[in-house]
Amino acid sequence: MPTAHLWSRNATEILMGADPVETAGLWQKIYEGTFWPGRRGLGIHALSAIDIALHDLAGKQLGLPVLQADGRRPA
């Protein structure tokens, strides 16, 4: 059964079917989804791991290095 409120959704519900190229928007949704469970310890480490994986997946889908996949150019 889906959760009733955005603040209590888990990462799977937020990410399933989403476009991984939209890394900033997805990160924001996941961050907002951690309001009730908390943003400390293991939770924030998991958020970091998901963020890295999204950037990696976006780079692979676009055929670009991760650094360029989100629109930034190397210095």
Give an overview of the whole structure.
Helices cover 55% and strands 0% of the residues. It has 75 residues and is an all-alpha fold. Helix 2 packs antiparallel against helix 3.
Ordered list of secondary-structure elements with their pairings:
Elements: H1 11-15, H2 23-33, H3 42-62, H4 66-69
The overall pLDDT average reads 77
State the major sheet: none
Which radius of gyration do the C-alpha atoms yield?
A: 13 Å
Low-confidence stretches: none
Which band does the percent of strand residues land in?
under 5%
Instruction: List the helices and strands in order.
Output: HHHH
Helix content: 40-55%
Distance between the termini: 47 Å
- The geometry reads as elongated
Class computed from helices, strands and strand pairing: mainly alpha
Put simply, the count of helices is: 4
Instruction: Say how many strands there are.
Output: 0
